[in-house]
Please model this.
Amino acid sequence: MEQFKLNATRIQFADDTDVVINPTELTSEKERFELLASSTLDGLLLCDSERKVLFINNSAKRILGFPVDKSFVGESLENLNVQCFTDSLNAAQENNIHEVNKVADLSENHTKLIGFHLEFARNSRNEQIGWLFVLRDVTQNWQNEQMRSALTVASHEIKTPLNSMLSAVDLLLDLDLGGLNPKQNHCLRVVKDDIQRLNRLLVDLLDLSRFEEGIQFLERRRQTSLVFLVNKVLDSFRTFAKSKNIQLENKIPKSIPTFKGDRDRLQQVLSNLVENGIKYSMPGGSLSVDAELQDTIIKCRVNDTGVGIPSSDLQVIFEKFKQLDNFPSSSSRGYGLGLSIAKQIIEANGGKIWVESELHVGSTFFFTIPV
Model:
């Protein structure tokens, strides 16, 4: 088969080991095929024109639930009892089709889904020698897609009543429906905070789902001023910071040039970092945002005097649902999605994000943006 023909080369196997092979050491085309096919993570099954199995690798056996220690070579394809294979091969031969791509459910309850590609198998002289099945377990991909779809529908369904409840609470707090005593006012503000937390969670989950689908929605790129963005973000958190006696400061030099980026998404990143810095700080602390130009890169720093991040968490802090155990107050604990989304936004803008921290001293989050 021409696509498996080797020159003297280095072959890398699935476990990252490699070996240099000289084709003169291989005595047949079958050996060349088996050498490569046995190491691939995709399942491969080769049968001749009479549907006798010529080769099946261990990956295919595992995907199909077959014993790995059994050969199967020489057996009829029908005897393997994989109905989707025989049906697809029958349809290909009846309709003179050379390639077939399908997804099949081996379990009838969506717990074992495989995607497979069927095509003519040809030798180095371009003569058909049979049929080649290339298969892959796609169960997890299918389940993830179903979860994302369900999440999107559920999120939109939940946001509507949440927004209605928020409007009703705002009416009560604005005293449009009559006065409130201090205890009633406090209870309603707790309800409002919880509704806003749930709304933020829904937005984060939808953003995460879109990023994992490859939808990065950065089509709103335009010339952006970092000074303007930081001022806008800090202004939105001044009331929150004042309630904890935390000083906010914009130290961005006016010499920092504008750049082309998605303003809304970068504001989302800054908001996440600033909000975390305030939440993780004890009363009387401070938070500042600074930046410097390094060649064609803007390097931004968000520095706080918070509780700090343990060194063991520095490598995983940007993973989904990661939360710190040394949080000063469990009442404001989030869901561990904000930094994961921030990382994807910055990387989609062509930059990098990381953190340096010292326990009981504070943390500095860095991110870069190409100019």
Remarks:
- Residues 139-173 form the longest helix (35 residues).
- The chain has nine helices and 14 strands.
- Confidence is low (pLDDT under 50) at residues 1-27.
- The longest strand covers residues 113-122.
